[in-house]
Predict the 3D structure of the following.
Amino acid sequence: MKINLELLKELEKSIDTVHPEKGKIPIKILGFGEISLVFEFVDDPEGLAYKRIPIFDNLMEVRRHIWAYNEYNRILIEEIGLNLPPYDTAWFKDKEGNIQFYCVQKKILTDSVGNKIIHDVTNKEVNNLIILAMREMKKVWAFNRKNKDFQVGLDGQISNFTVIDYDPNNPKVDENSKLLYLDTSTPMFRKNGVDAMDAELFLKSTPSFLRWLVKAAFLDEVLDRYYDWRLVTIDLIANFYKEQRPELIPGITKDINKFFKEEASEFNIEPITLLEVQKYYKNDKMIWVIFQRARKIDRFIKTKLFHKKYAFYLPGKIER
Ligand SMILES: Nc1ncnc2c1ncn2[C@@H]1O[C@H](COP(=O)(O)OP(=O)(O)OP(=O)(O)O)[C@@H](O)[C@H]1O
Ligand SMILES: [Mg+2]
């Protein structure tokens, strides 16, 4: 992969994490999660997507993360059989000696990302998309069933899947559509219960005044749920509130329960109820709202009171 490290260095010199698209080096935001920012360079002939992850303090942490990231991608492709975009990593030390790290992927057409598609196709096709995503996930949990001492986690939200060869001018998702999985920057696999990734790295994006709380209350819970297919699925369904299509939730839930019964009966997964989805959503929403508010306060303290740099991009108001 041809990564332009010099351009990344230029970008980091002048990046404004409050208005990243307004810096000296023109970039375009492709998407963002609760923690990271995914962008491309405007007019980049290589067509790459960069995910900026400003959480590393030393070489040991970076090396371990690169190893875990590459291994996670390899396992998902070679051992589990998911489709992933070509991937790589890039990093350097900036002038101040801070480590700047990126996960890099081939850029995928923005219109073909799941949370965009669900606004552009029929309800029937949204249901097709969900079942295709469930089939991809089944590959992961079939692997987990076979390998008791080696477990792989996945984030099954619809924004993490894209439809291969999707045509925005003729948007369609049918039984034969093929999915590609995007969200591999948090390497989730465990050998004999030991995480490949240092879970505490997650805390780096948490304001220090909240860390003890997050660690005590959420960290294990948040991480463990990506290894539990039923919880990952509840998360996928509940996310339709945030994606502004809550009216689809009853139909999707019904289809998914049918899928569990007919196509994944060997996993003995209890049917998911609407009440569970609602409760989960309220709880999850609360966690992220608190988290994002605290980060804004933290940014204010660092930048306005102490005139220091704030490493993270904070998304604007997220509709939930
Ligand atoms: N290779 C890519 N090409 C185009 N767009 C992408 C690519 N990778 C990610 N995106 C966009 O960025 C969004 C967020 O990416 P991703 O799912 O990898 O991050 P995330 O893990 O959800 O973020 P966080 O961990 O901070 O919650 C995706 O939903 C998609 O819209
Ligand atoms: Mg994601």
Residues 153 and 227 are 4 Å apart (CA to CA). DSSP finds nine helices and ten strands in the chain. The pocket of magnesium ion (ligand 2) is lined by residues 33, 155, 157, 159-160, 183 (CB under 6 Å). The chain has a mean pLDDT of 91.
